[in-house]
C-alpha cells in the first residue's frame, strides 16, 4: 500500500516509515512468529485479487481478551470491506479462539475508524487521555469493548 502510506500514516505513524519490500518481509516474519506463539493473528485483506489492507488481533491469553487493529488503502475505503473483515475476525476470535472480550481503540478524531466498532455494536467504554502521540501531539483515544455474549450468532 505504498501509494496510501502518507494517508494511512496520518493515523498510524509506522506507515510513514515502512515503504521498502524489506519492511514488508520483516512485518510478515514478525507476524508469523507471533501467530505461532499464539499472541497475534494478522491477515491480509484481499479484494478482487488485490491485497488492499491488513487486520490484526493482538491477544492476551490470560484474560481471554484481544484488541483489533486495521488499515485499508485509501482507494478501497467506503465499501464496507473493513467492517466485514472485522466481523469475520470477531467471529473467529469468539468462536475458534474462545476469547471473552475484544477491544478497539481509535484516535478521538478518527471518525472512520470509530464508525467501525460503533457499527458492529461495541460499547464506548471510555476515553484514554493523551494516549497516542501523532505528529508531536498527544491525542485522546476512545476505547470500545465487545463481550462474547453480546456478539450475535
Ligand atoms: C479506518 C479505516 C479502515 C476505515 O475504512 P472504511 O472503508 O471507512 O471502513 P468500512 O470498510 O467499514 O466502510 C464503511 C463505509 O462503507 C459503507 N458501506 C458500504 N457497504 C457496506 C457494508 N456492507 N457494511 C458496512 N459498511 C458499508 C458504509 O456506509 C461506510 O460509508 P461512509 O464512509 O460513506 O460512511 C480506513 O479509513 C483506514 O485504513 N484509515 C487509515 C488507517 C487507520 O486509521 N486505521 C485505524 C487506526 S485506529
UniProtKB/TrEMBL annotation:
It comes from the Bacteria. Residues 1-149 form the N-acetyltransferase domain. One of its GO terms (molecular function) is protein N-terminal-serine acetyltransferase activity. This is GNAT family N-acetyltransferase. InterPro entries: Acyl_CoA_acyltransferase, GNAT_dom, Ribosomal_N-acetyltransferase. One of its GO terms (cellular component) is cytoplasm. Gene3D superfamilies: 3.40.630.30. Keywords: Transferase. The keyword Transferase applies.
